[in-house]
Amino acid sequence: MKNNEKIVIVGAGLCGTLLAMRMAQRGFKVDLYERRSDIRKASIEGGRSINLALSNRGLKALALVGMDDEIKKECIPMYGRKIHPVQGEGWLSKYSGREGEWINSVSRGGLNISLLKGADEFENLTVHFDQKCLGVDILTGKASFKHTVTGEETHIEDAVVIGTDGAGSAVRRSLMANSTHLLFNFSQHFLRHGYKELTIPPNSDGTHRIEKNALHIWPRGAYMVIALPNLDGSFTVTMFHPYEGEHGFNTLNAPDKVQRYFEKEYPDIVPHMPELVEDYFDNPTGTLGTIKCYPWQANGKVLIMGDAAHAIVPFYGQGMNAAFEDVTVFDQIINEHEGDWKKIFKTFEDTRSDDTNAIADLAVDNFYEMRDHVDNPDFKKKRSLEMQLEQNYPEYYSKYSLVTFNENISYAEAMRKGREQDALLLKICQQGELPEEKVILEKLMAL
Predict the structure, then answer these.
(1) CB of 251 within 8 A of CB of 406?
(2) Structural domain includes residue 213
(3) What secondary structure does DSSP assign to 98-130, as a single string?
(4) Which segments of 339-410 does DSSP mark as H helices, in order?
(5) Which residues make Cβ contacts (< 8 Å) with residue 384, sequence separation at least 6?
(6) Nearest partner of 306 among 111, 160, 164, 162, judged by Cα
């Protein structure tokens, strides 16, 4: 491709900034437009920053721009789920039976800041903040922006436009506005649950109050609380509850109700949350939704990726990893179809849509697993068997490991194979006495 080709990327979040860096590495002139102010200079909005779980697919993408090792320094390894029942001792359910496999807790804001700093290193990459996208002409690729402070408008022509501007994407809306021409399909599905961010502060000496290297879960059937560690000794706690009913956010509407409720439902966490009530009422209640759409591109001029194309709920820890993997796949396709944007965009769309639909469905499945099943005896037995098999036979990957630790298999294939494995293992565990491991492995590997 010609190095003087101009690429306009809309949205300087995680996916957009990583994509901008990779395109700049390839020699393109890149302009990255962001509606928000520079988060390095402004305070990050509180209450909506669910911690991210960085795993193999995301690290592979970061390696493209040489930032994987740097970002690892900002992460805390989490080796498994620490399950906290209402009564009795908690236990750790490891993520993998193989050595050296874990997921990494990382701050969304901190990661975004690191990527923006990396973007500053490229002379052919310019980041424009406070720029609201007014829309994109899908026939010409003309992109229009309005400065949110001065009101000045900017119109860019003769560029390739890629929208990475999140679930509320303005670029996607431009595609939707041409739905008859594109036969554009769009669906948005909300869980009947929302989320609210709370905090476990660090001890006075900066250490963590509970187990540092774990993702903590308080599963309660129809609702739950999780906690992920931060480098400063704190935990980001997220409450996933329905909106209505006895356990709903709309019912827990007074300080005394919230305090009594937590003392009853989450008694072991209360001593670690001295500002529980303040956090609860200070922070907003967020929504949890899945977005699927098609097509993702038009005329070799406009493309969407990341949450703009496939927003998912956070329960597999794969939203960021899937968006980062978009960059990896897009980069590979550029290698295969150099110079032909129509072919690049169409191939990317056809290659990725089945996979992102699969991880969206798996993320919803995992919501119910984390909420309802992690404390179930049959599930615990199955999970223990999976760990033994992975430890003794590294060629076997559980469904979770296929998604999280095997970046060389697609999400769609991981879902197919993983669901079949789950069904078989649950059936074996429910039958009573287990067959020999080699017999089980042969059946699993035949799927």
Answers:
(1) no
(2) yes
(3) STT--EEEE-HHHHHHHHHHHHTT-TTEEEE-S
(4) 341-368, 377-392, 399-404
(5) none
(6) 164
Please determine, for residue 133, whether its predicted confidence score (pLDDT) is greater than 80: yes
CA distance 126 to 15: 16
Q: What is the CATH number of the domain that holds 48?
A: 3.50.50.60
> Is residue 88 classed exposed, middle or buried when 0-12, 13-18 and 19+ CB atoms within 10 A define those classes?
exposed
Q: Which of 252, 268, 287 is the last residue of a domain?
A: 287
Helices vs. strands in the chain: H and E counts, helices first: 15, 19
Distance CA 400, CA 93 (A): 12
Structure tokens given for 45: 């909005």
Residues 262 and 410 in one domain: no
- The model's pLDDT over 68-100, given as tens digits with 9 standing for 90+, comes to 999 999 999 999 999 999 988 999 999 999 999
C-alpha of 419 from chain center:
21
b/e map of 156-172 (b: 16 or more CB within 10 Å)?
beebbbbbbbbbebbbb
60 and 196 share a domain?
no
3-state secondary structure of 376: coil
Bond from prior residue into 295 cis (ω within 30 degrees of 0): yes
Model confidence pTM above 0.85: yes
Please provide residue 286's backbone torsions phi and psi, each rounded to the nearest 5 degrees.
-95, 160
Residue 304 CA to residue 390 CA, distance in Å, equals 37
What's at 98, amino acid-wise?
R
| Same domain (yes/no): 30, 139 | yes
**Which residue, 300, 427, 288, 303, is CA-closest to 360?**
288
Model pLDDT, residue 42: 74
pLDDT, mean over the chain: 94
Identify whether the C-beta of residue 296 lies closer than 8 Å to the C-beta of residue 364.
Answer: no
The number of folded domains in the chain is 3
Digit-coded pLDDT (tens) for 344-373 = 999 999 999 999 999 999 999 988 887 776
3-state secondary structure 181-247: HHCCEEEEEEEEEEEEEEEECCCCCCCCCCCCCCEEEEECCCCEEEEEECCCCCEEEEEEEECCCCC
| Burial class (CB within 10 angstroms; exposed 0-12, middle 13-18, buried 19+) of 3 | exposed
With bands split at pLDDT 50, 70 and 90, how would you rate the model's confidence at 203? very high
Would you say how long the chain is, in residues? 447
